[in-house]
């Protein structure tokens, strides 16, 4: 007697076609036109299948340079914003990074693709659970995904070479500054309605340098877990 085994294959899932790759190449060209120069950042965005990070209804929009809804009232950041923040981190392979606002996990994947050791915090339980299951399916393994409040940073693993905040912060949370290594870089959009992309570099135990890089628009950094 012959027994047949049927494996359920969801072909829509994890499908990355030539058409997707072609659109990704065009997206990378747009980012270059908008002023992104870091080759490793461009390479990561050219490699990662962004369409798989979005709800299926928006798949056609995945390679347009725009933010999009990902559920729980949140958005996947605009590719230019992800590229800009990663470029401002300006860190080498092997660096230890803390991300605040895991969301869809796209920024997390960019950092992992570049060889960073990534810790990432998300306050929305629904998104946290979804992304924790999803990222390893694409082969992206963060050092740790944390369900918690990013205002507090992640003391257990501090200090970090870099911290990137992917939601609009009304002010710079003190714990994030104190969890930077000397020479470490914090990339944080500051403001309520619109935000100014801000790079804070730790010069010494007590001194920090602040630089600004133009206006952006993010969903707000909210307090406590949800
Ligand atoms: N990096 C994400 C951006 C998602 S939008 C991506 O590329 O998809 C910002 C995310 O920050 C949202 O998922 C939101 O829930 C989360 N967030 C807001 N306030 C937070 C906080 N205090 N701590 C951790 N995450 C927070």
Mind sketching the topology for me?
Elements: H1 18-33, H2 39-47, E1 68-71, E2 74-76, H3 79-89, E3 96-100, H4 106-113, E4 117-122, H5 125-137, E5 144-147, E6 160-165, H6 174-178, E7 180-190, E8 195-202, E9 208-216
Parallel strand pairs: 3-4, 3-6, 4-5, 6-7
Antiparallel strand pairs: 1-2, 7-8, 8-9
Helix pairs in contact: 1-2, 2-4
This protein binds S-adenosyl-L-homocysteine.
What does this structure look like?
Helix content is 27%, strand content 25%. The strands form 2 sheets. A 7-stranded mixed sheet has the order 5-4-3-6-7-8-9. A two-stranded antiparallel ribbon has the order 1-2. It has helices at residues 18-33, 39-47, 79-89, 106-113, 125-137, 174-178, and strands at 68-71, 74-76, 96-100, 117-122, 144-147, 160-165, 180-190, 195-202, 208-216. It is globular and about 50 Å long. It is of the alpha/beta class and 226 residues long. The relative contact order is 0.12. It has one domain: Rossmann fold, CATH 3.40.50.150. Helix 1 (18-33) packs antiparallel against helix 2 and helix 2 (39-47) packs across helix 4. The chain is built from 6 helices and 9 strands; from the N terminus they run H-H-E-E-H-E-H-E-H-E-E-H-E-E-E.
